[in-house]
Amino acid sequence: AGSKLREVFDKINNLLSGKPVQTEGQTVSVTQHPQGLEFVCYKLAEKFVKHGEGEVSFHHDSAFPIAVVLSGIWELHPRVGDIFLAHLHKKCPYSVPFYPARKEGTSMEEYQRILGYEVHDSKVEEQDHFLKRMSGMIRLYAAIIQLRWPYGNKQGAHPHGLSYGWRWLAQMLNLEPLADVTAMLLLDFLEVCGNALMKQYGIQFWKTMFFIQKSYIPRIEAVTSAGQMGCLSRLKSFVKKCLQEQEIPLPKGVLTPTFWRT
């Protein structure tokens, strides 16, 4: 509910602003320790990324309420946004976007970690689980860049707005595609913020969509084996349908004005 989200936002904002906050039966304040504020900023940013790789990866709609709170906090407390990006880029290098190459002397286990895989006791997580987590984080990022906290001061620009999404898309299309990962990330990103990019960039956006269909999808196909075609097929269908209808649908779960009255 909108009213519940406002409570969450106010509590986080009050904590970061140095006001005492009630939690689990006790009162806490960042002023209680010299590094209190820095610690809270760090843990809060880390928590938002965990929401992306956890909650959003399983429930795509949850990207929007989480993102709108972070967007508003980022606007008032830029340090949280900076640390959030640092956590996000470390956990999901594709959010840069960046495909790390294996450097000489780097063990395979360490390289898997750099690529974003979870490695426990030399056991690397399964590909499906890895892709699901990356998907959740990209969806959260794609939601953040288009949302603003509706009760904030709208004088300034969004602290990390759509221009960053446009840049992400352009840089992504300049990278050589990877099997599995590239098709999934492009589809997630376009499903969540394609509509906002279409409204903002118009004809330039449609030129990019045409490039994806004619030039980039064949390049993804060239590196994709028969058993990895699922996500690529969905990306092809999505891009084809959008170009045919000259419309990108609104993402599922987007927050409408009526949401804030609940």
UniProtKB/TrEMBL annotation:
One GO cellular component term: cytoplasm
Stored InterPro entries: GLE1, GLE1-like_sf
Top-level taxon of origin: Eukaryota
Any Pfam family matching the protein: GLE1
One biological process term in Gene Ontology: poly(A)+ mRNA export from nucleus
Main location: cytoplasm
Annotated Gene3D superfamilies: GLE1-like
UniProtKB keywords: Coiled coil, Cytoplasm, mRNA transport, Nuclear pore complex, Nucleus, Protein transport, Translocation, Transport
Compartments it resides in: Cytoplasm; Nucleus, Nuclear pore complex
GO-annotated molecular function: inositol hexakisphosphate binding; phospholipid binding; translation initiation factor binding
Bilayer-crossing regions: none
Annotated function: Required for the export of mRNAs containing poly(A) tails from the nucleus into the cytoplasm. May be involved in the terminal step of the mRNA transport through the nuclear pore complex (NPC).
Family: Belongs to the GLE1 family.
PANTHER family xref list: GLE-1-RELATED (PTHR12960), MRNA EXPORT FACTOR GLE1 (PTHR12960:SF0)
Protein name (database record): mRNA export factor GLE1
